[in-house]
Design brief:
Blueprint lengths: L10 H10 L4 E6 L1 E14 L6 E14 H10 L3 E5 L1 E2 L3 H13 L7 E2 L7 E7 L4 E7 L7 H14 L5 E5 L8 H14 L3 E4 L13 E2 L3 H8 L6 H15 L4 E4 L5 E5 L2 E5 L12 H14 L4 H15 L10 H6 L2
Parallel strand pairs: 1-4, 1-9, 2-7, 5-6, 9-10, 10-11
Antiparallel strand pairs: 2-3, 7-8, 12-13, 13-14
């Protein structure tokens, strides 16, 4: 592929695409999570151990993982369906309430009584400094009935989708058979399939339209370091071949992104003006990419919108979202 560079996205075109995001419908499949923040003040070190004592102030709950991808898409005014697994527990109820309040259709979530809802509990100071994190999760292999139920939901919901996002956090939902069902459904209906990947599952994603690894994942997948644009170019080409996918977007933090897809490749400079928290930035990127493509953007145009959206969300605390007005203001 020749390095043709990315055609610049004009302000009128960007604003028009953002306005059409509300017409798009996204199907999100993957590992849903509940993020709990225990927030308090630190004024002393414990006499029992060299750790800070956190005086409790309040709890906050947010949707994480694939659920945060769905919330990002909904915040951009799109219609969203979400397929994933939850347990029969309080965390599942709280997560469903968060999704419902945001307007995300969660009727396709499957309850597996043998699993717990993945929950990440973070102890955070009032100055947004993380003290520790506790993970409640079950990443055991799916039983056959649960896997078949997921595949049934995929067949039921792809017909109305303009794009599909697979959000893989290695918590059990994205199996080889589930991913094959997604790719087959996308191919049959001409729907793009975008994957926020995990490297142990790299061979699952064959046939996907676009995978969106961060630079650490891209380095692990290609067995090479990525420090320069030339190395990013080589890694993206190699990753596309290894994963047998149509395109690759590598997110590189403060170094921006590298896109290799749709006959174009090139860098996007980092769009962040202020970095507060990078949690969930990958969710914002893949949600914006998929929605923009569903709304009629080219992959290059969608990547530029996603880059700006990521620049906004890293300026917020925790797994956050971006509104159409915020995104349009960047153009």
């Amino acid at each position: 592929m020749a390095d043709t560079g990315l055609p610049a996205l004009s302000s009128p075109r960007a604003v028009a695409l953002i306005a059409h995001l509300a017409d798009a419908r996204l199907l999100v499949i993957g590992d849903v999570m509940l993020d709990q923040f225990i927030i308090g003040r630190v004024s002393r070190i414990s006499p029992e151990a060299p750790v800070p004592v956190v005086a409790f102030d309040r709890d906050e709950y947010r949707a994480g993982g694939a659920a945060n991808v769905a919330l990002n898409a909904r915040a951009l005014a799109a219609h969203v369906d979400l397929i994933g697994l939850v347990g029969q527990d309080d965390a599942a109820g709280r997560l469903r309430d968060l999704l419902s309040a945001a307007g995300v259709a969660a009727s396709a979530l499957i309850t597996d009584e043998a699993r717990r809802t993945t929950t990440k509990v973070r102890v955070v100071t009032t100055r947004n400094q993380q003290v520790t994190r506790i993970d409640y999760e079950s990443d055991d292999a799916l039983t056959q009935p649960v896997e078949e139920a997921l595949i049934h939901q995929i067949a039921a919901y792809t017909g109305s989708a303009g794009a599909i996002v697979v959000s893989d956090y290695l918590k059990g939902v994205v199996t080889r058979h589930v991913m094959a069902a997604v790719v087959a459904a996308g191919a049959q209906r001409g729907i793009p399939v975008l994957v926020d990947p995990k490297i142990p599952h790299l061979d699952f994603y064959a046939g996907a339209t676009l995978v969106t690894p961060n630079h650490h994942e891209a380095e692990a997948a290609t067995h090479m370091r990525i420090r320069t644009v030339d190395e990013a170019r080589t890694a993206a080409r190699r990753l596309r071949d290894v994963a047998h996918c149509d395109g690759v977007l590598i997110t590189r933090g403060e170094h921006g992104m590298w896109l290799a897809a749709d006959g174009v490749e090139g860098p996007l400079a980092a769009a962040a003006r202020e970095v507060s928290d990078v949690t969930g930035a990958g969710d914002t990127v893949v949600a914006t990419l998929a929605l923009a493509i569903a709304a009629g953007a080219t992959v290059a145009e969608a990547a530029q919108l996603a880059n700006e959206a990521a620049g906004i969300v890293v300026g917020k605390f925790g797994a956050a979202t971006v509104t159409p007005a915020e995104l349009a203001a960047r153009f």
